[in-house]
Amino acid sequence: MTSILSHVERRQVVNDYTIRWDGKFYQIDRRDVRAGMRKAWVRVEQRLDGSIAVRFQDQYVRVRRCAQPSGELPPLQTVVPKAPKPASAPKRKSDWMKKFSLQSGPSLRQAVRISNARS
Question: Measuring CA to CA, which residue among 60, 63, 16, 59 is closest to residue 39?
Fold first, then answer.
């Protein structure tokens, strides 16, 4: 009944079975760790008395507050946008078919003759 008036949000479980809620870290109790829990989403309920309850696949799991994991959060880096590349000159057209013609040349006549002879 206490979950009815709770503030509810979803959180993702990190590889060390911790979740972050309200700037604090909570670790799922070893007895409640299940297969498929890493990177899975859990439902976090903050009760009116200030306690939190965590549900994974419709079952509550025990959590305890823990210190910030050492390697989990890398320091934030500012992203500097790259300068746009200068406009380049348009590419020149290929001339691989420049001297090709279906209308002239002995090779066309030969090709037609050979083709007709084989048919």
Answer: 16
Position 97 confidence tier, pLDDT thresholds 50, 70, 90? confident
Please, are residues 46 and 22 in contact by the beta-carbon 8 Å criterion? yes
User: Per residue, what are the HEC states of the chain?
Assistant: CCCCCCEEEEEECCCCCEEEECCEEEEECHHHCCCCCCCCEEEEEECCCCCEEEEECCEEECEEEECCCCCCCCCCCCCCCCCCCCCCCCCCCCCCCCCCCCCCCHHHHHHHHHHHHHC
Higher model confidence: residue 61 or residue 98? Answer: 61
Residue found under tokens 């013609």: 101
* Residue type, position 77, single letter: Q
